[in-house]
Design a protein that fits this description.
The complex is a heterodimer.
Chain A lengths: L13 H32 L7 H12 L10 H35 L12 H14 L5 E2 L2 E2 H21 L7 H26 L3 H9 L7 H19 L2 H6 L4 H6 L4 H23 L5 H13 L3 H25 L5 H23 L3
Antiparallel strand pairs in A: 1-2
Helix pairs in contact in A: 1-2, 1-3, 1-13, 3-8, 3-11, 3-12, 3-13, 4-5, 4-6, 4-7, 4-11, 5-6, 5-11, 8-11, 12-13, 12-14, 13-14
Chain B lengths: L12 E10 L2 E11 L4 E6 L5 H9 L6 E6 L2 E2 L5 H7 E4 L11 H6 L14 H14 L14 H15 L3 E5 L7 H18 L2 E5 L3 H7 L2 E6 L2 E6 L1 H4 L2 H8 L11
Parallel strand pairs in B: 3-8, 3-9, 6-7, 7-8
Antiparallel strand pairs in B: 1-2, 1-4, 4-5, 9-10
Chain lengths: 360, 257
């Protein structure tokens, strides 16, 4: 069973190749689920107050699964687990799912290996929305979200919608036009963000901490606002996996393979943007997860979106839960710094390794 | 102008009074073309004559400015993409892959119109992929990254993808440009086999007049967006036409007898 990234043997019997490929996604699924369970127990257990893994598992089993476990822990421990750590770990996992699924979708849709969830202006739109929320002296709560999260969510969606509309010149926008419009609108929004930061005065730190991303303010109510959007979007995209597969050889070929390219592109773009907006609203801007995870999973299972999407979702969830744990143990440094420190070298290594076999 | 008349039954492909205008340029004008099920037709003509435009009309990815395009008696514009993809496969000239993909994964894309929408590929789909790989003779390429292949090998893989799609109509846009002589002949033999053995209706754009004349019983010659010849090679490829359409000495075009 040769790994995809190794130089591939020149001749391989058809059956053997199919057998090898059929087993592997199941194995990865099991590995991913195990990693997620470990991330959950460690993420809930470790922090400024350490909780023994046995107690962590017992509390989770008691409260989440309703098992009858005799408490061996202090009530305050249970509060830390249920009100602070668990919502935080689950938020990190949800955002990880969202960024990985959105990244996979944007890469496939735009047929661009360098695409990430932020490529069409969502990041700049969310950042500008958050910055505006910080500098206007109004405090409201909309759907469990503070104004900052609500405006970040809205900003991301407005930005990507603007990009989509501006790139449409009558018919179906060419992909390059979509990407370049995304770049132009993103630059304009970044200028707005710079202006807002300049005007923010004492609140600059608040904008800055949003830009770097993090999960320290996570709560059940915020998770309850974001997770359903991310979950719905991810499932809806997974059900359209074969549209993404059809686009592998380009839009004209996708049409020949029975894909309604204009409709599928609009739907997938809307779903991936919705997921991204929900993710950035709760966590701020966290880079590299949406770029690197799909590439790693693609190397392992190949380009078929049917395997790629769920496995990327698992990988993103585990990666971001571990990254948040590292950020917390290092004294609440921004999680975006952790993902960049892990992700950038990893991506460079991936590029070098891949280049040895085939061009990227 | 109709080539071979056929009594009764729906035609596979029919264009009636078709015009295509891009801005102020007339790409196709007054095209009437009727291709019956089981025919094997080569579309020839110079660069910019409208050959690829005509293929896009038949594939339904381009709507005519005027006139109608029908597949088996139904307007192609009134069929959804999936319905078209089950009737008609297209071998594109070239396709770029943004990510690494194994040859068999590319061939399997041809099954997209037949796969279960949620469960994905079934045993029948996998069998069709294996059969297409064997039929086009690209077994030796299985397992390789399609982006590492030569242009000619990629062309064969794209043909295998369209064969896996298993449609009653097959359109090909320049299927032989990157192939060496041996593979050109092999590809033509494959088309003949699909046509005569499986009854697949074939419409292929070809630049090589020799191949077209040798392997196709009917040629349609386009010039400046109009059909100026339609029929058996001997009738269509007259020395005068070769001189006027292609602007070359007819002696350069060797037609097999």
């Amino acid at each position: 069973m040769a790994s995809r990234s190794e130089p591939i043997a020149p001749v391989r019997p058809v059956d053997a190749a199919h057998l090898a490929r059929r087993a592997r996604p199941i194995v990865l699924l099991a590995v991913g689920l195990a990693a997620l369970a470990v991330a959950l127990v460690l993420g809930v257990g470790l922090g400024s107050v350490s909780i023994a893994p046995g107690d962590t598992i017992a509390i989770l089993a008691h409260r989440l699964l309703g098992l009858d476990v005799a408490p061996t822990w202090a009530p305050s421990t249970e509060t830390i687990v249920m009100e602070l750590r668990l919502p935080r770990v689950l938020t990190a996992m949800s955002v990880g799912v969202g960024l990985a699924v959105a990244g996979t979708t944007f890469q496939g849709l735009l047929r661009n290996p360098l695409a990430d969830p932020y490529v069409l202006g969502t990041a700049s739109g969310a950042a500008l929305g958050a910055a505006i929320a910080v500098i206007v002296p109004i405090r409201v709560v909309i759907f469990q979200f503070g104004l900052l999260h609500a405006l970040a969510f809205a900003g991301a969606l407005v930005a990507v919608y603007t990009v989509y509309r501006l790139s449409r010149t009558g018919g179906l926008a060419p992909l390059t036009s979509l990407l370049l419009t995304g770049y132009a609108v993103g630059s304009l929004l970044a200028a707005g963000l710079a202006m807002a930061m300049y005007l923010s005065g004492a609140a600059l730190g608040q904008i800055f901490s949003y830009l770097l991303g993090g999960f320290d303010g996570s709560s059940w109510s915020r998770l309850a606002a974001a997770a359903p959007l991310i979950g719905f979007g991810s499932v809806a995209i997974s059900l359209r996996a074969r549209s993404l597969d059809g686009l592998l050889l380009g839009e004209e070929t996708a049409a020949h393979l029975g894909i309604d390219v204009r409709r599928e592109r609009a739907i997938l773009l809307a779903l991936a943007s919705l997921i991204t907006a929900a993710a950035v609203a709760v966590s701020g801007l966290i880079g590299f997860v949406g770029l690197v995870v799909p590439h790693v999973v693609r190397l392992l299972v190949g380009p078929s979106a049917r395997s790629l999407l769920p496995l990327s979702a698992l990988g993103g969830a585990a990666l971001l839960a571990f990254a948040d744990l590292a950020a917390r143990l290092l004294g609440e440094i921004p999680v975006g710094v952790v993902t960049a420190v892990i992700g950038a070298p990893f991506f460079l290594a991936l590029l070098r390794r891949v280049r040895a076999g085939y061009e990227l | 102008m109709s080539g071979q008349g056929s009594a009764g039954g729906a035609t596979a492909i029919e264009l009636i009074g078709v015009d295509v205008r891009y801005h102020d340029r007339q790409a196709l004008a007054g095209i009437d073309l009727r291709i019956d099920p089981g025919e094997r037709v080569a579309l020839i003509g110079g660069n910019g004559a409208g050959k690829s435009t005509l293929l896009r009309l038949v594939a339904g990815t381009l709507a005519p400015t005027a006139g109608t395009v029908e597949l088996f008696g139904t307007g192609v514009g009134s069929l959804d993409r999936l319905a078209v993809a089950r009737r008609l496969g297209v071998v594109p000239q070239a396709a770029a892959l943004p990510f690494a993909a194994r040859v068999e994964e590319v061939v399997a894309l041809g099954r997209i119109p037949h796969e279960h929408p949620f469960r994905g590929a079934g045993p029948a789909d996998r069998a069709a992929v294996d059969a297409a790989i064997a039929r086009v003779g690209v077994e030796a390429l299985v397992g390789r990254d399609a982006r590492e292949l030569s242009l000619g090998e990629r062309q064969l893989v794209l043909i295998a993808m369209a064969v896996a799609q298993a449609t009653p109509i097959l359109l090909l846009d320049e299927p032989t440009v990157h192939l060496d002589l041996r593979h050109q002949v092999a590809a033509m033999d494959l088309l003949v086999g699909l046509n005569e053995g499986d009854g697949t209706t074939i419409l292929a754009v070809l630049h090589d007049l020799g191949l077209a004349a040798h392997f196709f019983p009917r040629l349609v010659l386009l010039d400046h967006g109009r059909v100026i010849g339609d029929g058996p090679p001997r009738d269509v490829l007259t020395p005068a036409r070769i001189r006027s359409v292609f602007g070359v000495d007819p002696a350069l075009v060797r037609l097999a007898s």
